[in-house]
Design brief:
By secondary structure, the chain is α+β, with helices and mostly antiparallel strands. It has 19 helices and 48 strands. The strands form nine sheets. Strands 3, 4, 5, 6, 7, 8, 9, 10, 11 and 12 form a ten-stranded mixed β-sheet that branches. Strands 19-18-23-22-21-20 form a six-stranded antiparallel β-sheet, covered by helices on one side. A six-stranded antiparallel β-sheet has the order 25-24-29-28-27-26, with helices on one face. Strand 21 (528-533) and strand 22 form a beta hairpin. Helix 1 (50-75) crosses helix 9 and helix 3 (169-180) packs across helix 4. The two termini are 61 Å apart. Mean pLDDT is 77; it is low at 1-47, 76-105, 445-485, 565-588 and 687-707.
């Protein structure tokens, strides 16, 4: 029996009746004209909700537009039908099947399903296919043989276009099946398949009139290892990558229930449009479902969960109909609860308010308390950026963007309820684990760097009401313009150890790429190419590899101009540095010295004689560069004889002299015997600020009365962190390291497993599995009593340093902990090496200052007390500031402490997840109701049932801009209507206290939940 066309948003049949006759026909029995709404008859004394009324009006408009469209197509010359399934012949075959005696030639019949294809369809068909199925081995349903196409990486039935050699549509289907399965079957087997398609009493074939195509159904009880041996039998030019038996319920759910691709192995694949169209056709779906149930299929496996809907079937269509899938999200975990389908093309809906009404009518359980989002990757929880659909401009930009995606048949819209009413979600499970709670911050920026869906339309709160009614906001002066280069500029450190401004052009270029989120950018200055790295905040000369520090400062910060000339062509001797009032005396450059990097990251000076020899060698190399060809100068080969210095250095630990190669072009040192490489650098030495001593303080081997020992660690891949070796193993590795065993690996035993240690690559290798892990050497600071300073003990402060613009910058977490531990140990000074610029620093705890060992520059430091770690399941109430402005639109910033009473189940959910999502019915609609005192809260809950009281919840509630309704009649409000009115909450005075209602759970931060009586 043919199924009726169903519309998921249509009203129930027991309330309304479709009317095909004239809507102005009068009621004969009463002599009055009944109230009518665009094609419907409303029973007497029955009110129609606004949402249903808008939907019905829109449905009628859509039907009239479709009717006009079909009439215009009939008037146009006949065009060849679109065929989304297989390529067709440009010309019909020469041999045509003639009608039988007494049969008149006529056009093709509408689509139908029967045992045989009749004339004239046998002559007019353009393509034919074969759907091969079998019963599952466990007897629970059927499977369909499908091929994974190379061209579009989708799963499909077997079939293709008609060929000149094909006499009938059966020949076309058999030939295509034979070619696409690797020609596994012999002629006798193919003849048997042909006989079954022609003579079997249970045979079934479907004629698709709009596509002029034929689809045969064939049961293959034994597959002759076609799928298993396809990889061996397929030709080099085969159309299919692989063959698979796919469960029917997975195909059905992919088309009709979830719309998701089918997972095979580790990959997911979509379905070809022909397969989608087959299951959307009414007779095909019914036939396959009957087969599935007849062969032991489970009816629950093809039903949507939690009351979701399935896609409607269609009797006839030329193109695959487009639809909207509404994904109802769990407000706690942001996972999909269920799907509901809207059978219409979203690009044809021109009104945003009508779209929200349709969403409300299709998913009435969420009411009008929801937010809509579109994500390019379709999955809300894993998406990095989301496009909110909350205004007319946002909806218009979305439809404009989607109209360009012509091959996207399903548009997936995420519906996030702002709260839930338990009675509306009966049978829906909101169960979760604490680790699954999502505190995802919505990022309404573009989904890509080229503009994305939203563009720059996301308006401020002040423009919201105007945007609702379609008004244009031409005044965007309050919007932040990322191209505005007047706020910030960039500076680099010159040879006088001062920060100098980049040129205006380069500063704009660097700022632009910095705001776009790039990690580096290239630019040119004085004919040289440079690269600025935003992670290390350094610039690199791509020719000489010289590195300088850079920084981003406000435009008011003045850069050094001592090396520039003024308008009178005189040298500028202005010594103001950093900002007005800060005087900085530039130290005089004395000489350059060379250093090599230790394994712990510190830098050690070469002997003075070696530094002088290296300086001379590098000067000669720099002066003679012009004598070499350019490609030789750009050579990446290390330790080339033309720029490598050979010297011998005596090791101070074992008094053994080693030969080293020092590459002055790539700044590398190599031990000629062990081949171990280290970084080297050439740094300027300036005079001292406080005396005339021209030497610099190098990083010492001891820290006041403290000594340094070392421990060894390996990197745990499972947790991606560093794990200590046991003490005995660590000490043994340290002894081998000191003895300079770089040339050969050695074996250690740790946790009853044997490993090889390679110092050259700083790795360990498991002798059992052969797996490599990184290792490292870390310093342990010992105090005067010989005990190790515990860096993780009593970390109660974080440390910060003052920048040149008077702002305080945080040390990285590891460095801050080390400074705090050193301060707690009672030492006077602490030395460390920065991971960012490899400079050595001294922290003086008495003067609370930081001293750069290389440059002598001093900065103030401070420590900030850390608050105890918040142990609640939600956000910390002391730091919570309500919904962020980038998350959604708010209209004020008011936050107050409020109370409510809930039952045991809701209280347990709040303690477990930290979210308050359960709304209640009240005089102002469904919402989250709170009161400003404990006494009033208990009094208002005194008449509730026992299951709805017993637990007092104290919250911080984002009230924002209140809508006071104290002197008004009761009225139903919701989240969307409140946003439209530019309010954040509803409040009213009750004489002995005040009641507040909010309609979004993101306005609530849980402080505590406790039992009450």
């Amino acid at each position: 029996m043919a199924m009726q066309d169903m519309n998921p948003s249509a009203p129930p049949e027991d309330d309304y009746q479709w009317v095909e006759s004239d809507v102005n026909k009068k009621n004969d029995s009463q002599g009055q004209q009944p109230q009518q709404i665009q094609g419907f008859v409303q029973p007497d004394n029955m009110a129609i909700p606004d949402a249903i009324s808008q939907q019905v009006i829109y449905q009628k408009i859509m039907e009239e537009q479709q009717k006009k469209k079909e009439e215009s197509e009939e008037k146009q010359p006949a065009q060849p039908p679109q065929q989304p399934i297989y390529p067709v012949l440009a010309q019909p075959p020469q041999q045509q099947i003639q009608p039988q005696q007494g049969q008149q030639a006529q056009g093709p019949k509408p689509s139908y399903m029967s045992q045989d294809i009749q004339y004239p369809e046998t002559a007019l068909y353009k393509a034919a296919g074969l759907c091969v199925w079998r019963q599952k081995e466990n007897g629970k349903g059927i499977q369909i043989m499908m091929g994974l196409e190379k061209r579009n990486n989708t799963l499909s039935f077997f079939g293709g276009k008609r060929d000149d050699i094909d006499k009938t549509c059966v020949d076309t289907a058999i030939r295509e099946f034979h070619e696409e399965t690797g020609k596994k079957l012999d002629d006798e087997t193919l003849s048997q398949v042909r006989r079954m398609l022609i003579n079997d009493k249970d045979r079934c074939v479907h004629w698709k009139a709009e596509w002029l195509s034929v689809l045969f159904y064939y049961q293959m009880s034994y597959d002759y290892d076609i799928v298993k041996d396809y990889s061996k039998n397929k030709q080099w030019n085969a159309e299919m990558k692989s063959l698979h038996w796919v469960d029917f319920e997975r195909i059905y759910n992919s088309v009709c229930v979830t719309g998701n691709p089918i997972k095979i192995g580790k990959n997911k694949y979509g379905l070809r449009s022909f397969v989608v169209g087959t299951l959307l056709h009414e007779e095909n779906r019914k036939y396959l479902l009957d087969l599935h149930m007849k062969h032991g299929g489970d009816a629950n496996s093809v039903k949507p969960k939690y009351g979701g809907t399935i896609r409607n079937t269609i009797k006839s269509f030329k193109n695959i109909p487009k639809a909207v899938r509404l994904d109802i999200l769990n407000p706690i975990t942001h996972t999909i609860l269920y799907h509901k389908w809207m059978e219409m093309n979203i690009t044809e809906i021109e009104d945003y308010q009508l779209f929200t009404s349709l969403v409300n009518s299709i998913a009435p359980e969420v009411g009008r308390n929801f937010m809509l989002y579109y994500t390019d990757n379709q999955y809300f929880k894993s998406s990095k950026k989301q496009s909110p659909i909350d205004t007319i401009p946002a909806f218009n930009n979305l439809t404009k963007e989607l109209s360009a995606k012509k091959k996207q048949f399903v548009t997936k819209i995420n519906v996030l309820p702002t709260f839930v009413v338990s009675d509306n979600f009966k049978g829906v499970s909101f169960s979760f684990k604490p680790k699954d709670v999502s505190w995802k911050q919505i990022n309404p920026c573009n989904d890509d760097e080229k503009g994305g869906i939203m563009g720059s339309m996301y308006n401020k709160a002040a423009n919201f009401a105007q945007a609702w009614f379609g008004g244009d906001n031409d005044d965007d002066s309050d919007e932040y313009d990322p191209n505005n280069d007047g706020l910030w500029k960039w500076q680099f450190m010159n040879d006088k150890n001062k920060f100098e401004d980049f040129s205006n052009k380069n500063s704009k270029l660097i700022e632009k790429n910095f705001l776009n989120g790039y990690s580096f950018t290239n630019f040119k200055r004085n004919g040289n190419n440079y690269q600025a790295n935003f992670k290390t905040m350094c610039q690199k000369n791509l020719s000489s590899n010289k590195i300088r520090n850079i920084r981003r400062v406000p435009s008011s910060v003045k850069g050094d101009k001592s090396g520039k000339k003024d308008n009178n062509n005189n040298n500028n001797i202005n010594n103001n540095y950093g900002y007005s009032g800060y005087y900085y005396r530039s130290p005089a450059l004395q000489y350059y010295k060379w250093q090599f990097q230790e394994d712990n990251g510190s830098w050690t000076d070469y002997d003075t004689s070696i530094s002088k020899q290296l300086n001379s060698f590098k000067i000669n190399w720099d002066n003679n560069v012009s004598n070499y060809h350019y490609h030789i100068y750009r050579s990446k080969k290390r330790f080339d004889a033309r720029y490598t210095f050979n010297t011998s250095i005596k090791n101070k630990n074992n008094n053994i002299t080693y030969n080293y190669l020092i590459d002055v072009k790539h700044f590398k040192q190599q031990n000629s015997e062990t081949k171990k490489e280290r970084n080297v650098r050439q740094i300027p030495c300036y005079d001292s600020y406080n005396n005339n001593n021209n030497s610099l303080i190098s990083l010492p081997y001891f820290l006041n009365n403290n000594t340094i020992q070392y421990k060894w660690q390996y990197k745990d891949d499972g947790y991606n962190n560093w794990t200590d070796y046991d003490t005995a193993t660590s000490n043994y590795v340290e002894q081998q390291y000191i003895s300079n065993r770089y040339s050969s690996a050695f074996t250690v035993t740790c946790k009853n497993k044997n490993y090889k240690i390679h110092f050259n690559s700083m790795q360990q290798q498991s002798l059992l599995s052969g797996k490599f892990r990184n290792i490292r050497r870390r310093p342990l600071i010992m105090n005067a009593s010989g005990s190790v300073i515990n860096h993780s003990k009593a970390i109660k402060h974080r440390w910060e340093w003052r920048d040149d613009d008077n702002s305080w910058k945080k040390y990285d977490t590891a460095t801050s902990k080390q400074i705090e531990s050193a301060c707690n140990s009672g030492i006077k000074k602490y030395f460390f090496v920065s991971n960012k610029n490899n400079n050595s620093y001294e922290i003086n705890f008495g003067a609370m200052s930081q001293y750069n060992v290389q440059t002598g520059k001093q900065r103030n430091v401070r420590k900030i007390a850390l608050e105890p770690k918040w142990k609640g399941s939600g956000p910390n109430p002391k730091k919570w500031k309500g919904p962020l402005a980038v998350d959604r639109r708010t209209f004020d910033k008011k936050i107050i402490d409020l109370y409510c009473i809930v039952g045991d189940n809701v209280a347990q959910e709040i303690k477990k997840g930290g979210k308050f999502i359960r709304g209640t019915l009240g005089p102002f609609g469904s919402g989250l109701y709170f009161y400003d005192s404990v006494e009033m809260t208990k009094k208002m809950a005194s008449n509730r049932s026992i299951s709805r009281k017993g637990n007092l919840i104290k919250c911080k509630v984002f009230i924002g801009k209140e809508h006071d309704v104290s002197n008004m009649d009761d009225k139903q409000y919701d989240f969307i209507s409140l946003q439209k009115m530019s309010f954040d909450s509803v409040s009213r005075s009750l004489g002995f206290g005040k009641e507040y209602i909010v309609y979004n759970q993101d306005q609530v931060c849980i402080i505590k939940a406790e039992k009450c009586h």
